[in-house]
Design goal:
Blueprint: H1 3-6, H2 8-19, E1 26-30, H3 36-49, H4 61-67, E2 74-77, H5 88-99, E3 108-112, H6 120-131, E4 137-143, H7 151-154, E5 158-161, H8 173-184, H9 191-223, H10 229-266, H11 278-286, H12 290-307, H13 313-323
Parallel strand pairs: 1-4, 1-5, 2-3, 3-4
Helix pairs in contact: 2-3, 3-4, 5-6, 8-9, 9-10, 9-13, 10-11, 10-12, 12-13
Bound molecules: zinc ion.
């Protein structure tokens, strides 16, 4: 079910606020960063970035880019290291991008998932933006443990409490390292290298699909023993597909953040999301002009849109990576 249906009351408040031009600059959304609250955030962003009159339409380019976490005017942050901390540098990068003009001339949004993972320095880096929010900017903080946030943060956000969500089946650790290995080999130098990366990317998703399918099957085995085989298979496929789509969106978001970091460096900027990989990013940026780095971001954005159109995944990856050759 859509987040919009699940949280009708909270959603109605946001929708009316949007129409009346009375949205707050910052919201604290209490719920699961992988489940209900994530879906709520996506619906919220679609409202801002939808290009149709009846918004959100869930079909236009704006809505689709939100869904795949690839909208160029939305910045996503979540704890990435083993220590599960959101670092002050990452917050500063987000604050900096929020202070610049939007790429598409409309809203700018910053989303912080698991916002309780901000340490004191990170929270302080965020406070200034909460006190003096840039024009047409919205900050969405998501957490299931609001009590872990600084009171000064909480008091500056409008709070939305969602009902319980569902757990995630696959941990970030399952894909983060293999993905980083792939990204470190960006951009491919020739067709052979592009094909090799495409096969690696396909392998990453195949592995994730198998893992998700097993986890979903275990859940089903526990809860739905009375169902007949065919029905069970149908539910299994549907849930695996839905969960895989969510994980794919996370993976592509990290890829896009990476390529955007290259763009930042190629444009002479310095604030990076993947700041721990600065040296590698700088080497990749040297291979680009500002224009080609922007083009590379666009290619990755298009990649996800093509994935859902009955073209074999490997072909989509291969074609995209060939276009990235430098
Ligand atoms: Zn739309």
């Amino acid at each position: 079910m859509d987040a919009v249906d699940l949280h009708a009351e909270a959603w109605e408040g946001i929708r009316r606020g949007y129409e009346a031009g009375r949205l707050a600059h910052a919201y604290l959304i209490v719920g699961s960063s992988r489940g209900n609250a994530l879906h709520f955030v996506e619906s919220f962003l679609k409202l801002l970035f939808c290009k149709s009159a009846e918004r959100p339409c869930n079909e236009c380019g704006g809505c689709r880019r939100v869904e795949t976490h690839k909208h160029i005017d939305t910045m996503w942050l979540e704890p990435q290291s083993k220590a599960r901390q959101i670092k002050a540098d990452e917050i500063r990068a987000l604050v900096h991008r929020m202070s610049q003009t939007s790429f598409e001339g409309g809203w700018k949004a910053g989303v912080i998932l698991n916002a309780d993972c901000m340490n004191a320095n990170s929270a302080n880096a965020l406070l200034k933006t909460l006190e003096e929010p840039p024009q047409k900017s919205i900050l969405l903080l998501v957490t299931d443990s609001p009590q872990a946030l600084l009171p000064t943060i909480i008091s500056r956000c409008q709070k939305i409490v969602l009902s319980a969500g569902f757990a995630s089946n696959v941990s970030t650790e399952a894909w983060r390292l293999p993905l980083m290995n792939i990204l470190h080999d960006f951009p491919p130098a020739n067709g052979l290298a592009a094909s090799r990366l495409a096969v690696q990317l396909k392998g990453l998703f195949d592995g994730l699909k198998a893992e998700i399918s097993t986890a979903v099957e275990e859940d089903l085995g526990r809860s739905e023993e009375s169902l007949e085989e065919a029905k069970l298979k149908e539910i299994l496929d549907a849930r695996t597909g839905a969960r895989l789509k969510e994980v794919q969106a996370e993976v592509f978001r990290v890829m896009l953040d990476w390529q955007r970091d290259v763009l930042v460096l190629a444009s002479g900027g310095e604030y990076l999301i993947h700041s721990e990989h600065k040296d590698t990013l700088a080497k990749q940026a040297e291979l680009h002009t500002q224009g080609s780095a922007l083009q590379a971001v666009r290619i990755l954005e298009e990649l996800t849109q093509r994935l859902n159109r009955n073209i074999p995944d490997l072909q989509v990856f291969d074609e995209a990576l060939r276009r990235l050759i430098r």
